[in-house]
Amino acid sequence: MTIGLLVQRAADRFADRRAVQGPDGTRSFAELARRASGLARGLLSLGLSPGDRVLELLPNGCALVECDLALAIAGLVRVPLNPRLGPTEWERIADDCGARGLVYDTRFDQETESLRSGLRTVVPSRRFDDLIIGDSPVGDAVLDDVVGLAYSSGTTGKPKGARRTHRNRISSALAMTHEVLGGPPGADAVYLHAGPAIHTSGLFVLPFLMAGARQVFLDHADAHAILEAIDEHGVTHTALVPTMVNRLAEVADGTPLRMLAYAGAPMPSGQIRRASERLTPNLVQYYGLVEAMPPLTVLDAAEHARGLDGEPELLASAGRVCLAVDLQVVDEEGRRLPDGEPGEVVVRGDPVTPGYFDAEGRADLGKSFADGWLRTGDIGHIGAGGRLWLTDRKNDMIITGGYNVYPREVEDVIAGIDGIADASVVGLADPEWGQRLTAAYACAPGRRVEPEEVLRLCRAALPPHKRPKSALQVGSLPLNATGKISRREVLRRLEAGEAW
Known about the structure:
This protein is α/β, with parallel strands linked by helices. It has helices spanning about 5-15, 30-45, 60-75, 85-95, 115, 130, 165-180, 205-210, 225-235, 240-250, 270-280, 300-310, 405-415, 450-460, 485-495; strands at about 20, 25-30, 55, 75-80, 100-105, 120-125, 145-150, 160-165, 190-195, 215, 235-240, 260, 285, 295-300, 320, 325-330, 345-350, 370, 375-380, 385-395, 400, 405, 420-430, 435-445, 470-475. It has three domains: about 5-240, Rossmann fold; about 325-390, Luciferase, domain 3, CATH 2.30.38.10; about 395-495, 2-Layer Sandwich (GMP Synthetase, Chain A, domain 3), CATH 3.30.300.30.
């Protein structure tokens, strides 16, 4: 099974059902397959060849799905660009991957002027109708053909693109279906893409296509727009980053969601309880990486319920390891550690990238591969029931007074304080301590928690070496391109003494 065959099978089975709808219209399953296949032919007719890298800069909508599928069918390599990154980062990615083409929305005309001038093939999405040629299948892709390059957010130095194959994407789609969704969604299911579909929300495109269920796309949606869409379209499933889940819980009072998934980071138990009470009790957390497509682990709705009803330690877990992967925790030399002992998480299996694009001779790629294993850079341990507990990122560790401190543990304590919405803990340079733990936090609308109270509660909940030395209340915490709190930007602002 390749992506092209998957799309055609969905068209044959579900034909006239609505497949996708967004600001740019609606497509049935048959229409989506016809347009994607025809667009694949059209792109190849412009002089592109299988294996060429094609940049994609499109907002949430039908055109994004059509382009994604068309590039896969044509044997072209999709390189999605995050609109939030901006022209400088787009051009750096284009240079790194040797892009030959660009498919873009004309709202980005001005920002892409320089980018477009250096590419041979440039296609605005409004030309899709003119480019569609025929509707028969295209190409003869195989499972291990590269179908995309995924560039991680927050990249420093030279960009790095993880190669994704048909095998990676279909393995992820099957695991999302059976591990996260709990089985194929029914014909009446409706998935809402409220976050960018080039990131975590996009992991649900293939599962819902395979199941013959409808997908609705929003562009730049806030919490109120998400709630309106849930009501208007009868939405049953969605996935959001924890920051947006928290914001949604601030303004909602119950939803009909059968599943609300979150990823990118665990949520503090207080926020999980509020989301369960104000949004839906059907919460699911999943974990993965750019280099190892989610889900690698899943904490399902039943485990969330147990965690809220007497087993709170479960809520700090990333959940059970999925069947599609082999996941272990190892020491610095790569030796497997006993359960309960912290170390670096390593993983192998069908969801794991075969490597970075053009990686030969580079020593700046961060994550490494050894004997088929991906060293993730995440620190954690395996505990009860074979579940994974993640401590933090290896590179985010703070060394203060000779002690190693992972900021997530401190952030969870602060974010669990009544009235606080988000928190970020970083290490500022300090002549006495090496690094001084400093907390920045944002309160829920209409609430205020004094810094002295935050420090007092941290003293009560944490050992001395993990207690922040100072705390700062800010209006909001900066987010990176994928909607997660950017510790790097928090640190920069604190070091620069900027007013927030």
